[in-house]
Automatic annotation (TrEMBL), chains A, B, C:
This is Hydroxyethylthiazole kinase. Keywords: ATP-binding, Kinase, Magnesium, Metal-binding, Nucleotide-binding, Thiamine biosynthesis, Transferase. It is an enzyme of class 2 (transferase). Pathway: Cofactor biosynthesis; thiamine diphosphate biosynthesis; 4-methyl-5-(2-phosphoethyl)-thiazole from 5-(2-hydroxyethyl)-4-methylthiazole: step 1/1. ATP binds at residues 118, 164. It comes from Tessaracoccus lubricantis.
Length: 266, 266, 266
């Protein structure tokens, strides 16, 4: 079995519990996606509870899109708690670069060494301080323009960095992997990117070592891309696409995922 | 007409206004479920407004899943306001037992005598202090393991206690009713349990006396189970299941609900 | 091309960025609707970020349904920031009239001259202080009962006032336009009204002058009504209706919208 298939099989076999601290727009789709892929979601934001739960859960997602000051305080406790417990955590730096509070927050959290960072190209550049970020949550930069910055982020933080776009690029120390799948309707469904961050966390929870993390991140992207290709066969508009895509996340076998998407190493 | 049919007919005839104070993940599905079953939702969390509205609405739901300190303050005002106005209120003790803030909150609220408590087995045990609760929002205990504790909660608080599982068990003074329906895809749709708590509140709003409350709680569970059976005929994956299930909540007649589910008294 | 078609074409051609400060129930459907109609959503509530972003975005929506004190503080900064930057902003006074905090908030914000107010009849009356508002978020007044009050609100604030109902009525200085479309299942889908407020903001973003604002507001209502008519052809229950309606928002051409709905000037 390939590493991608091993990861997806592992998630379904072990139902990792993913602690999600995410923005106000996407909790429901994030939870439904985690359930569909075989993981278990738990959204816990109160600082006192988040600090405890980050050490109990299998993995943690911190998505700095629209959140409250109270949630931000919780994130500042949960990231070090996850790190101290040896649990992988994922940073999704939504709209970082252009907005001051979340930009400072995301940069401050890097010291706790996320296992992965998932973002669009503008957010990767914004997190590193290389550009002012995108237009709200939209990328205004091309994926390839962020690869060198992603490489530097890996070197500085130890994280696998995944850049989302028509072709996703996963970057870590010495490796660059490109995953091509999905469909143009996918960015018209809110939360597909945010839920990908949560699924990356689920996949990292079943990685057996730090060396397996790169492939775990690739596996999450492969599953999302494959489901997008399947959904596009049956839908020409975003709401029907959303339903079919969520169904495909649940029903696709690991072997089907690998047949559907194109995964290339640079 | 049976008590179940009377309750479901009563909800559709009177459109009870259900004040929902719920977690960040499920407001949208909760509102859509209440509209589908014939009730009207209103989510109001600000303490000053929640205290007023709890006395105006037909019933109140307090779900202690992921919420803010501000919302918790509102819940501490709304529960006594509902009680003072003679309006039934429902407690959904999400993940109580393992997480300290919500566990204290839920236990403190019991003094205001909820009309019903709806939870999974681990949460019932966690609320009573009998166990440490489940794994996040997942039950790790079997329904039957919580029946004796549910009986004690009834005795202590006056609430009807409903334990959700493959077969739901509704417990009150001297009665134990088992409702079998639903489908294994239902727990893969986030919010079906939380929305059941809201529907219990809607059904309690049309109960004519405290003696009718047990049957009102059973009616909500019967409707949910019946809709799950109908949805499973047309779906093999969770997103399509969710759509068909919500549609069935709206279209099933009370007579069809009673034909579909199995309701047994111990 | 008519003004309605020009507006809808303009939204799709320019992808206006709509800053949404909305209630806890509807962020996901609001974002999906904006994406479906060709706009781009960004939910940003933190006061420090909201004040900045309101001057950057193409338009701003302020929906005073269930929100936190922190979000309210952000709204009090964002409305004047949008006004100062010459960006149109829309007020959706959810349940205003009956609930004190949001009623004061909505009235205070009027001094910043919203480009449009979108509400049901009870909320229009509640905002103006003419009645106590509806029952939670439900209108208890007929649309026509609010037209005179809407006219006065226009005179006082400069806003186009849109009253939602079986026939929507759009009121501005010297004009009253009635838009008939939609379907009785539409109010059973939570957030269709709130998402209409966001779509009004998107349409206002492409209005070339204040004189064009009335028609921009009509265009948003026409699109929603047309999509409701299309969805009703394929659905008899609310969840399927919701999917088809969202799809239709994306696929209907401006010419089809105009053929489907009835638009009449008084």
């Amino acid at each position: 079995m390939t590493r991608i298939a091993e990861t997806l099989t592992g998630v379904r076999a072990t139902t990792p519990l993913v602690h999600c601290m995410t923005n106000t727009v996407v909790p429901e789709i994030t939870a439904n996606v985690l359930l569909a892929v075989g993981a278990a979601p738990a959204m816990i934001d109160l600082p006192e509870e988040a600090e405890i739960f980050a050490g109990i859960a299998s993995a943690l997602l911190i998505n700095v899109g629209n959140g409250s000051a109270e949630q931000h305080a919780g994130m500042r406790l949960a990231a070090p708690a996850a790190a101290a417990a040896g649990k992988p955590w994922v940073l999704d730096p939504v709209a970082v670069g252009g907005l001051p509070v979340r930009t400072q927050l995301a940069r401050d959290l890097l010291v706790h060494r996320p296992a992965a960072i998932r973002a669009n190209a503008s957010e990767v550049l914004g997190l590193a301080g290389t550009s002012a970020g995108g237009r709200g949550v939209d990328a205004t930069d091309e994926v390839d323009a962020a690869v060198d910055t992603a490489r530097q982020l890996c070197a500085d933080t130890g994280a696998v960095v995944a850049i989302s776009g028509p072709t996703d690029v996963v970057v870590s120390d010495g490796r660059v992997t490109r995953v091509t799948g999905g469909h143009e309707l996918m960015p018209l469904v809110i939360g597909t990117g945010c839920a990908l961050g949560a699924t990356v966390a689920a996949c990292l929870a079943v990685a057996e070592s730090e060396a397996d993390r790169h492939d775990a991140v690739v596996a999450a992207h492969a599953l999302f891309g494959a489901a997008g290709l399947v959904a596009a066969r049956g839908a020409t508009a975003p709401a029907t696409f959303r339903t079919l895509w969520l169904d495909a996340l649940h029903t696709l076998t690991p072997a089907e995922v690998e047949e559907l998407v194109t995964v290339e190493e640079d």
